[in-house]
Amino acid sequence: MLSVLRNSAYRRLFTAQVIALVGTGLATVALSLLAYELAGEDASAVLGTAFAIKMVAYVTIAPVIGAVADRIPRRVLMTAMDLIRAGAAAALPFVTEIWQIHVLIFLLQAASAAFTPTFQATVPEILPAERDYTRALSMSRLAYDLESLFSPVLATALLTLVSYDWLFAGTTVGFLASAALIVATALPGPAPIERTGGVRAKALFGTRLFRATPRLRALLALDLAVAAAGAVVLVDTVSLVRGHLDRPAGAVPLALGAYGAGSMVTALLLPRFLQRSTDRAVMLRAAFALPPALAAGTVLTATEPRAWSWPALLAVWATIGAACSAVLTPGGRVIRRSTAAADLPAAFAARFSLSHGCWLLTYPLAGGLATGAGLPLTVLVLAAVSLCAATAAAALWPARDPDRLDHVHPDLPPGHPHLADARPATGGWRHGHHYVIDRLHHRRPGSRSKDDGRCPDRIRRPS
């Protein structure tokens, strides 16, 4: 899997990603301590608002950036976002009011909402081979999981030497280092495309792309299944471990570590599995593993703790982590398969926004239900959400899902460059090729009963 690091451009980008992730992890710890210093016992409310601001920034900013990404060189865009994040992190130690935290968090997360989809859209262009790109996706998943395990440990070690304010300095240095690596990397420029329509139309194109492509609609349903299971782990672990199982505080990171370990093992094995099976088969099987795992979690929360309860929880959390990783990691392959090169930024921005919209739904559901109705009902409800989402994904993603489709163009004039290999047919010109939604192809052939393989003027790409 490490062979992809021989590509110098990807190696620098991956290193920049890892450094920025570690910096973000340090900032998360430092932000908790800062909130406690300013708000005391109300720190949880401050942090809850900060995380809500993060999700709102992700959902709203990413599509807008996707709409204008083709106008800005990617190296310039990602470097600018790193500098904005570094500035926001550097200012956090100097805040004196809670509202200042919220403003800076929005600024930092808005920059992340611009940086991350642009990074995701760049990787498949510098690693065009499917095998290399799959390995890069697994590397990225590993980076996220290792950050969640390593950053708290590093923060704890640093706090024995310096005050928490210096953690923000580490975050700033991380973003500056990421910017320096990106500046030193030659990246592909935006694909040249004609421009009509305003920013709003372009911002909505990624969402329309998902709506018009069955496998992308299924991908969104799979993201909801993951968000339902992940919210249980991330929101309710502390209550389950400390309250229900009556374990010490140190058991909480162990439980979260089991989730991360399951995710990492799966990320390491996925490139081999994806050589033997399709994305659809791997992702759907993993999604349907989530409801039974959550059902087991329901049993754990509804029964009196016994000697087997703690190891059973670790096994369930590891299973959820493995299944979530198997759903999330191949998502980039599905997007690349379904999108024209010029539209990758818009597609990744839409996925970034829509997937975080799922988390914006399941986070408060996991927290609110646990407080008002108890853990057993909370886990059961989110298991039902996960099952419904996985079932919807299976229904939305056709078992027979070829890339090449024959279709008719009724609206292109004879001699159009796109019709070079087409033949006359009833009502237009027929040919076949790798089919994606773009400026000339507005919806999938056969998507409606009266379609007859045509490409009618229904969903237009803001070209």
Write a concise keyword list for the protein shown above.
single chain; 463 residues; mainly alpha; Growth Hormone, Chain: A; 3 domains; three-stranded antiparallel β-sheet; 14 helices; disordered C terminus
Structural class: mainly alpha
DSSP, total strands = 3
Biggest β-sheet description: 3 strands, antiparallel
Question: Biggest sheet, strands in spatial order?
Answer: 1-3-2
What does this structure look like?
This protein has helices spanning 8-39, 43-68, 74-91, 98-126, 130-159, 165-183, 199-212, 214-244, 251-276, 279-302, 309-328, 331-337, 344-372, 375-396, and strands at residues 404-409, 423-425, 428-434. With 463 residues, it is mostly helical. The protein folds into 3 domains: 1-190, Growth Hormone, Chain: A (Up-down Bundle); 199-400, MFS general substrate transporter like domains (Growth Hormone, Chain: A); 402-463, no CATH class. It has a 3-stranded antiparallel β-sheet with strand order 1-3-2, with no helix packed on it. A hairpin with a 2-residue loop joins strand 2 (423-425) and strand 3 (428-434).
Q: Briefly, what is this?
A:
The protein has 463 residues and is mainly alpha-helical. 71% of the residues lie in helices and 3% in strands.
List the helices and strands and how they pair.
Layout: H1 8-39, H2 43-68, H3 74-91, H4 98-126, H5 130-159, H6 165-183, H7 199-212, H8 214-244, H9 251-276, H10 279-302, H11 309-328, H12 331-337, H13 344-372, H14 375-396, E1 404-409, E2 423-425, E3 428-434
Antiparallel strand pairs: 1-3, 2-3
Helix pairs in contact: 1-2, 1-4, 1-5, 1-6, 2-4, 2-7, 2-13, 3-4, 3-6, 4-13, 5-9, 7-8, 7-13, 8-9, 8-10, 8-11, 8-13, 8-14, 9-11, 10-11, 10-14, 13-14
